Amino acid sequence: MNVDGKHYRTIWLKENEPNIVQIIDQRHLPHKFVIEDLTQVDEVARAIKDMHVRGAGLIGATAGYGMYLAALYAPRDSERAIMDQLMADEEKLKATRPTAVNLEWAVKRQLDAIGACDGGFDAKIRMARDTAQTIADEDSEYCRRIGEHGVGIIKEISRRKNGGVVNVLTHCNAGWLAFVDYGTATAPIYAAHDQGIKVHVWVDETRPRSQGASLTAWELGQHGVPHTVIVDNMGGHLMQHGMVDLVITGTDRTTYTGDVANKIGTYLKALAAKDNDIPFYVALPSSTFDWKIRDGLREIPIEERDASEVKYIKGLHNGELKRVLLTPEDSPAGNYAFDVTPARLVTGLITERGICQASAEGVLGLYPEKVSEISNT
Ligand code: MRU
C-alpha cells in the first residue's frame, strides 16, 4: 500500500543486498516511519516477539524470511548439520509468539522445501529465498482476493442504503500492516472506497497496545478512508443505536470448524453484534486456518504478554515517543492478548477462495483438499 504516495510492502529483501531483510518497525507508528534491517535469525525472532512486526500474516512472512537467513548462516559440513541447525532455528522462531498459526505454517513450509531440495548447499539457500518470497507474494495476492470477494458484502449494504455511508466497525489492525500488503479486514474496505462506495470505519483503539488507534487509523488515513477512533467499549452502544452496519475483523488462528481467535475484545464485539443483528465477518487467508483443531475455545493457545503493556501507555509528547504509567505502581495487571469467538457468533468467513459459513461444512466446501488431511488427524 502507499505511504505518502510511495508503494510499500511491510517486509522485503533490501535492494542489491539480498542477505538483508527489511521491515517497517511498527513500534514507532503512527508518529515515525522507521525501516529496520534484519540480518540474522535471532534479530528476526526478536522483531516478532517484541512486535516490531505483528499481525498473523506478517508474522508468518517474517518467519519465512527468518528461515532464509537461518539457511544462509547454517553450517555447511553436511546435510544433517544444515537440517539440525534449521530445526533449532525453527524452534527459536516458534517460541516467540504462540497464537498466530501462520508462524508454524511458514517455518514448516520452509523446512519441508529446504529438506526436499537435494541440489547441494547453494540450491538449498536459493530454495529458502524463493520460498520466503513465495510466502510473501501469496500473502499479498490472497489478501487482494479477499478484498475482491468481501467488497460484495459492503456493496449490498450500500445498495440497501441507497448509496448512503456504510459504517464498518473493526477491532485491532487486520490491515496491510498485519500482512505483506492489502490486509484482510481492510481489503474489502479499500476495494469499496476505491470503487467510490461511501464507507466509514469505526476503529477500536484496541488496548493495551493500541493497534487500532496507532496502526489502523494511520493506514486508513494514508488511503483517504473516512474513519473514527473509538474506545474499545463504545462499539456496543453504537450498534444499539444503528450506527454500525457491519463488523469485519481479522484472525490469528481459525479452526476448520469456524472458531476464531483474534485480538482480545473481539469476542465481546461478536456478542454485541449478535445481540443487535449486525453481520460479523472474519477475513483470513488459508494460511490462518488450523486444520488440526476442532474446538477453538479449548485448544487454541492464547498468548499472555507482560503486565507492563497494560500498566503503561505510549504516545508522542513534545515530538518524542514517551511511555507513561497509568496504574498505581504496585497494582498487578492481567494481559491475555487474544480471545476466541465461537463459530456460532460468526456470520461468515471471507477467504481468498470466497465467502463461506463458519463451520466445517462451509470451510471444507471451499477447501475440499483438506478433508483427507482432517480425517487423518
Ligand atoms: O498482537 P497482534 O498485533 O499481532 O494481533 C494482531 C491481531 O489480532 C489481528 O487482528 C490479527 O493478526 C488478524 S490480522 C492478521
Beta-sheet strand percentage?
A: 15-25%
Radius of gyration: 20 Å
Question: Structural class of the secondary elements?
Answer: alpha/beta
Q: Treating each run of at least 4 consecutive H or I residues as one helix, how many helices?
A: 13
Amount of helix: 40-55%
Distance between the termini: 39 Å
Let me know the largest β-sheet: 7 strands, mixed
User: Which strand order spans the largest sheet, edge to edge or round the barrel?
Assistant: 8-7-6-9-12-17-18
Q: What small molecules does the structure contain?
A: 5-S-methyl-1-O-phosphono-5-thio-D-ribulose
How many E-type strands?
18
Low-confidence stretches: none
Mean pLDDT: 97
What does this structure look like?
The protein is α/β, with parallel strands linked by helices and 377 residues long. The protein is built from 13 helices and 18 strands. The protein has a seven-stranded mixed β-sheet with strand order 8-7-6-9-12-17-18, with helices on both faces. Strands 13-10-11-16 form a four-stranded mixed β-sheet, with helices on one face. Strand 17 (348-351) and strand 18 (354-356) form a beta hairpin. Helix 2 (56-72) packs antiparallel against helix 3 and helix 3 runs antiparallel to helix 4. It starts with a strand and ends with a helix.
Sequence-ordered SSE layout with sheet pairings:
Layout: E1 2-3, E2 6-7, E3 11-14, E4 17-24, E5 35-38, H1 41-49, H2 56-72, H3 79-94, H4 102-116, H5 121-160, E6 166-170, H6 186-194, E7 199-204, H7 211-223, E8 227-230, H8 235-240, E9 246-249, E10 253-255, E11 260-263, H9 266-275, E12 280-283, E13 289-290, H10 296-299, H11 308-311, E14 312-317, E15 320-325, E16 338-341, E17 348-351, E18 354-356, H12 360-366, H13 371-375
Parallel strand pairs: 6-7, 6-9, 7-8, 9-12, 10-13, 12-17
Antiparallel strand pairs: 1-2, 3-4, 4-5, 10-11, 11-16, 14-15, 17-18
Helix pairs in contact: 1-2, 2-3, 2-4, 2-5, 3-4, 4-5, 5-6
Residues 54-57, 172, 174, 178, 184, 211, 250-252, 262-263, 337 line the site of 5-S-methyl-1-O-phosphono-5-thio-D-ribulose.
